[in-house]
Amino acid sequence: MMPVLTIALDAMGGDLGPPIILSGAIKALQTHPNLHIIACGDAQTITGITAELNSDIASRITIHHAKMKSRCKTNHRLCYAQKKMRQCAV
């Protein structure tokens, strides 16, 4: 039996956000039965995407709520694009 591999994942990152990132994570879980994912980010958003999963896949996803903190005082979209403001407190 292979050992369990656990990967923490920033579910809120990327240009297209949680739907794309979690879709990839779900495909990895379907392919690798010994994989466990810790999805970090907004718990409500992640739960909304993972709510319909079958119990085997869902049981291998742990959701860790983490807020995004912004230190940007001007244009938030610009700061996000320049990655000056992202911090995930885990």
Walk me through the structure.
With 90 residues, this protein is an alpha/beta fold. It has one domain (5-81). The protein contains four helices and three strands. Helix 1 (18-31) links the parallel strand 1 and strand 2 (35-41). The longest helix is centred in the first third of the chain and has 14 residues, at 18-31. The radius of gyration is 15 Å and the shape is globular. The termini are far apart.
Classification by helices and strands? alpha/beta
Query: What percent of residues are in strands?
Result: 15-25%
* Overall number of structural domains: 1
The count of DSSP E runs of length 2 or more, i.e. the number of strands, is: 3
Strand order of the largest sheet: 1-2-3
Summed up, the helix count is 4
Strand and helix order: EHEHHEH
Q: Calculate the terminal CA-CA distance, rounded to whole Å.
A: 31 Å
Contiguous runs where pLDDT drops below 50 for at least 5 residues:
84-90
- The gross shape turns out to be globular
Please describe the biggest sheet, giving its number of strands, its sense, and whether it closes into a barrel. Answer: 3 strands, parallel
> Overall pLDDT, averaged?
82
Summarize this structure as a short list of keywords or feature phrases.
4 helices; alpha/beta; single chain; 36% helix; 90 residues; globular; 3 strands
